[in-house]
Each structure stands twice: as C-alpha cells, then as structure tokens.
Amino acid sequence: MHELAYSSSKAALNMITVRYAQALPDIRFNVATPGEVANRTFAATDMNNHTGTLTVTQDTGSIIRLATIDADDPTGTFIDRLGPLGW
Q: Which of 3, 12, 59, 84 could form a disulfide with 43 if both were Cys (CB 3.0 to 4.6 A apart)?
C-alpha cells in the first residue's frame, strides 16, 4: 500500500508542476526524483530500509541541478540524476 500512495501522490505533484509551469512561464517549475529511474537505483535511506545502492550525495544530483538552473533553462520538466524523464 505504501507504493500505491507514494506513486499516486508523485503523479499528482508532477501534474501540478506542469500546470504551474504553463500558468506562470516566467518562473521555473520543475520536479526531481532522486536516483536513476531507468536503472532502478536509489539511495540507501531509512525510507527504504537502507536497500539502495547510491549514497545520499550521489542521489541528490537532480535536486542540485534544479536548484541552480538559469532563467533560460526548461520549465515543467521531470528529471532524475541522469536527466529529463517522460512520465
């Protein structure tokens, strides 16, 4: 059940991000997921009982990238540490 609730709320957050990006194009709205979706890798944290293979430092690349974007960078995107994702 945990995965159902998490996945549903994540999908809703992604859609809200896209809608804000469309409504306010002068502001950058993007969403990041830690880890690598294609490789199913993620950080070892308390949330996953430390079963991940990445360190927290490796896992935060997408978050750092979005925190340092420029005004000309994309908006309304969903990324992981490897780059943009379709959802």
A: 59
Task: Write out the two tokens for 38.
Answer: 């294609």
pLDDT tens digits along 12-39:
998 999 999 999 999 999 999 888 888 8
Q: Which two tokens stand for residue 83?
A: 């780059």
Q: How far is CA 75 from CA 2, 32, 42, 48, 61, in A?
A: 29, 12, 24, 30, 17
CA–CA distance, 86 with 38 (Å, rounded to integer)? 11
- Please state the pTM of the whole predicted model: 0.77
Backbone angles phi, psi at 5, to 5 degrees: -65, -45
The helix, strand and coil proportions of the chain, stated in percent and rounded to the nearest 5, come to 40, 15, 45
Residues contacting 60, CB < 8 A, separation 6+: 34
- Residue 35 pLDDT: 85
